[in-house]
């Protein structure tokens, strides 16, 4: 990306007192009018745009500080021994543009993640509950990115992402998965008192990060974190068991198991009153249906009364 500065030059009449009146480009003597730049003098027609050849004498132009060979046109490559200058039209073709406002960057800029920004554009993207933008200047500040936006620490910690900026006390901790320390300004995910790098807090099946997503956890005895496995929503649905009653997947909520079968709690109901049985006492009928204790007692009373 080309870095430039905007400059201007005027036309001067050559006088007999001018010590050096030889054009710095063509080497020929300047007899009448000249223009100057960087302590060098030129014929007006020799002081031209490095791309289109238009004269730049007497007006504004853009002068590069550095330039890469793959950014040069065939015309410009022939002029690499001279300073690279552009008229406004040619400069707009190759000028760096701000990644936020998309306008040309003419002065100093800030580079972040291989993108350039005006200093006035590189500000916090945070918005408070009243829809007021933070706009804190991020130059020389720690930057916390999320979904192609960037935030100051205060605004980032207010986001409901499952990720927080590493505070000073967290820097003394280690990632629960990779056991590496957290560096200043890094992002941290926390679950049940344990801290993870977002790249370490992943689905145990597909290995995608679940740091700012809904997830499910599976654990062995005593819910010990060392044995805990996390599943993203998609993998959880794939692995979910089928309800023996409605045949749909049991994705969330409490499941009731009986005789090797799983049921939604709302599907495990009494055949008579249709109320949920849950973990209460119940009886199995001859036709493999379930009846709650209350209805069973009622049936017995009705039988005895006949």
Automatic annotation (TrEMBL):
GO terms for cellular component: nucleus; Z disc. PANTHER family: FOUR AND A HALF LIM DOMAINS PROTEIN (PTHR24205), PROTEIN ESPINAS (PTHR24205:SF4). SMART domains: LIM (SM00132). The keyword rRNA processing does not apply. Residues 21-97, 173-233, 241-302 form the LIM zinc-binding domain. This is LIM zinc-binding domain-containing protein. Pfam families: LIM. Keywords: LIM domain, Metal-binding, Repeat, Zinc. The keyword Zinc applies. One of its GO terms (molecular function) is metal ion binding. It comes from Adineta steineri.
């Amino acid at each position: 990306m080309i870095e430039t500065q905007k400059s201007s030059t005027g036309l001067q009449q050559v006088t007999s007192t001018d010590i050096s009146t030889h054009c710095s480009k063509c080497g020929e003597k300047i007899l009448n009018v000249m223009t100057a730049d960087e302590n060098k003098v030129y014929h007006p027609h020799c002081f031209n745009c490095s791309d289109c050849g238009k004269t730049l004498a007497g007006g504004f132009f853009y002068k590069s500080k550095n330039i890469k060979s793959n950014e040069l046109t065939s015309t410009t490559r022939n002029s690499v021994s001279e300073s690279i200058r552009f008229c406004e039209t040619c400069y707009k073709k190759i000028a760096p543009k701000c990644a936020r406002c998309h306008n040309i960057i003419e002065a100093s800029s800030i580079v972040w993640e291989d993108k350039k920004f005006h200093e006035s554009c590189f500000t916090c993207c945070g918005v408070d509950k009243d829809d007021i933008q933070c706009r804190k200047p991020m130059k020389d500040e720690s930057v916390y990115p999320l979904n192609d936006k960037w935030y100051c620490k205060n605004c980032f910690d207010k986001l409901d992402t499952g990720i927080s900026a590493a505070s000073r006390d967290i820097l003394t901790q280690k990632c629960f998965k990779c056991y590496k320390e957290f560096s200043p300004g890094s992002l941290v995910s926390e679950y049940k008192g344990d801290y993870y790098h977002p790249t370490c807090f992943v689905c145990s099946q597909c290995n995608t990060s679940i740091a700012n997503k809904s997830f499910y956890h599976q654990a062995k005895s005593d819910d010990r974190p060392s044995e805990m496995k996390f599943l993203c929503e998609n993998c959880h649905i794939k692995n979910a068991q089928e309800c023996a009653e409605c045949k749909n997947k049991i994705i969330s909520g409490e499941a009731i198991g009986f005789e090797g079968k799983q049921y939604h709690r709302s599907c495990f109901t009494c055949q008579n009153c249709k109320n949920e049985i849950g973990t209460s006492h119940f009886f199995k009928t001859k036709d493999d249906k379930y009846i709650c204790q209350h209805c069973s007692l009622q049936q017995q009373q009705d039988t005895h009364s006949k």
